[in-house]
Task: structure prediction
Amino acid sequence: MTDRRVDVLIAGAGAAGLRAALAAREAGAERVLIVSKTESGVDNCSGIAWGGLSGAVGGADADHYASVLAEYSEGIAQPELARKLAEASGPALQELASLGVQSQVHRAHLTVSARPRHPGEGLTLPLLRRCQEAGVEFAEPAMLVQLLRDDRGCRGAMVLDLASGDYCRVWAGATILATGGFAGLHARNDNPAGTVGDGVALGLLAGARAIDLEFVMVFELGLAEDGCPQDGCYFGPAVSAGLVTDDSGLPLDRAQRDEHWRAASLDTARRDGRYDLWLDLTRVTPEQWREEKLALVRREILLDLPVADRPVRVSPLAHFTPGGLMIDERARTAVPGLFAAGEVAGGVFGAGRPGGGALTDAIVFGAVAGREAAEYAAARPQAGSGDAVLDLPFVEPGEKGRLPSEVLSEIGWALWNYVSLWRNGRGLEACLAWLRALELPASAGSVAELRALHEGRLGRIVAEAAARAALLREETRGRHHRRTDFPEPDAAWQRNIIWRLSEDGQLAHEEV
Result:
């Protein structure tokens, strides 16, 4: 097993990770390494984001943006984090131009653009180029599978090479998690593959705490056909042009769809696709298909589906998870030397966020994490004791039994069945029983399955915490936590549920 030493180790190459790397180099860190599961700046949530960043720009001030954040947070965001985002958003967004990002400024937000279905690359690719020019190093495809720590805090991470299946210990003066959220852990979602909350679980296992994991932002409808790209952001023109029906062909308007989904949530049986519906586009005329927005949907999302001949399967799609690892205004977790930024971090948005808030959060706290990590690394002794013993799975050709990818899929369906649109006590208990009954194999038969094994191992921790938090929160709060058995908001629940791992490795919670 090889060892490597760096000043700052960063997991994730989206907007948060890239901005953190630049800030770390600017603050004096000589050796900065980004580890990414996919091509840096491209195949991640930042790269496929619709390209909007909201904040105190275009004539809007910090007080205005703070009020917008407060409205969406449903009263449970950490006030110091929300205020930090509001106050830093203007300077951080204005600074993007000096980093090579071209944008259009509007009232309270700016937009970037690039190729179709990847407008966010207008932000990530310029940041990537600046990182390369600054001497930032990259390891891809690779993923963090365990954080290394001692009595002084986080000392780096065990990294899995997703091409070879080999492990490497990366000793670091400071480590930044910028791995994204866990919306992609849900069976129906519009996130890139691999956005499964592994960073949240890694932090918990290392001693950090997590907050607000019960909330998930869901787009109303997107494509859910097998083998086709899912998309909740641009699919609206197709929904407007077509006819949404249930399995029997009964048309459903928006209110009827919501009631259909609420009723489906009361069924506690294990049933894949419980929120799926059908979109009939067979009556759309050629003239309609030539309209700009509908033509884009046809070209980029529907692809070669025979929409003129039959309805297509559609579903709500999990999009964003506001909860994550607890951080302070300096992007520090409870573990010395471990920082977090972007969607992997919680507390900034509470129960929900405004449009464009995710990328702004990534830029603001990415920069904070990079600076703080560089300063921390410079002040601590050189990390790295090569005798750390780790019990990690390996590829064993010929291994038989259930595939790790199948177990990972089961986790996704458990969440989607019971912890998505609507929730109730009986369903959440069923979800927890489902998750606890899952058994991951001890090894994998390919590198792809080894990745799935680690994602399943880490994802199950996050899924259980999310389900338990949803069960604890006995109220309905906005569109992101709706309980059929507690249909009204409760002022007594204007507080947070915080998670940690106990000394025996079990999830434990506190309410504050």
